[in-house]
Amino acid sequence: MELVKLTHENIDKEHICCAISNNKDIQVISKKNWLKERLDEGLVFLKGNVRGKCFIEYIPAEYAWAPVEAEGYMYIDCLWVSGQFKGHGYSNLLLDACIRDSKAQGKKGLVILSSKKKMGFLSDPKYMGYKGFQTADTTEPYFELMYLPFEESAPLPRFRDSVRGYEDLPEGFVLYYTNQCPFTAKYVPLLEEMAKSRNAVFQSIQLQTREDAQNAPSPFTTFSLFYDGQLVTHEILSEKKFDKILVSKGL
């Protein structure tokens, strides 16, 4: 499979894989605008030359929109191969390309957000372990920071202290999100309207800068929903799934 790297010159015409709609769709516009602002910071979006979910997105950890301390590492935002593209070795192809590029840039290794067991929107810990990644740090309720050092002397990455406790979060629902994932542009407004119609206490906080994201209370800054100071889910919710949560809270 041919791999295509997004640039300022081709980003407007290239399909970005995780959002299938046309370029006028709010999800596509939101994601591409976010990417454009990151390209000059060293972000790489490498995709298969296909129309579907087959890509890897990574950035120097100092510029990652995640509360991690991993100076000198490359942070993988997303590695996603799904549907008809699974089972053909494309995940290996993409990850190996990232490794070669990161080594060429003199990076100390790779870091990626995972979980104790396989969960949606997080890297598969079994696959990452198979590729040589190890757990560098953990935080509640299930997040794991995995890393692949390029040399034995590489320092151990860690989560920032902002993810260690949620005591200061207000009551009710609090949603932290960014435009890093195109789906938030569609679903966050829908969730806001649902919460309003049910008289639920609901506050959405868009993390609009790298500094905000690096000091967020959840390792997964793309989407993290809290209720009364406890993480409910990091998985981007459809209306049906949010309805179940509202009902469980008596709303």
Q: Give the full name of the CATH homologous superfamily of the largest domain.
A: Gcn5-related N-acetyltransferase (GNAT)
Overall average pLDDT: 94
CATH fold-level label of the largest domain: Aminopeptidase
Based on CA inertia axes, which overall geometry fits?
A: globular
Low-pLDDT windows of residues: none
H and E order: EHEEEEHEHEEEEHEHEEH
- For the record, the CATH class of the largest domain is Alpha Beta
The helix fraction, in percent, is 25-40%
Number of domains: 2
Sheet with the most strands, sense and barrel status: 7 strands, mixed
Number of strands: 13
Helical run tally = 6
Q: What is the assembly state of the chains in this entry?
A: single chain
Determine the strand fraction and express it as a percent band.
25-35%
Keywords, separated by commas or semicolons:
7-stranded mixed sheet, alpha+beta, 13 strands, Glutaredoxin
Task: Characterise this structure.
- By secondary structure, this protein is an alpha+beta fold.
- The protein folds into 2 domains: about 5-160, Aminopeptidase; about 165-250, Glutaredoxin, CATH 3.40.30.
- It has helices at about 25-40, 90-105, 125-130, 185-195, 210-215, 240-250; strands at about 5, 45-50, 55-60, 70, 75-80, 110-115, 135-140, 145-150, 160, 175, 200-205, 225, 230-235.
- The strands form 3 sheets. Strands 1-2-3-5-6-8-7 form a 7-stranded mixed sheet, sandwiched between helices.
- Strand 2 (about 45-50) and strand 3 (about 55-60) form a beta hairpin.
- It is globular and about 55 Å long.
Task: Please outline the helices and strands.
Layout: E1 3-5, H1 26-39, E2 44-48, E3 54-60, E4 68-69, E5 74-81, H2 90-104, E6 109-115, H3 125-130, E7 134-139, E8 143-149, E9 158-159, E10 173-177, H4 183-197, E11 202-206, H5 210-214, E12 223-227, E13 230-233, H6 239-248
Helix pairs in contact: 1-4, 4-6
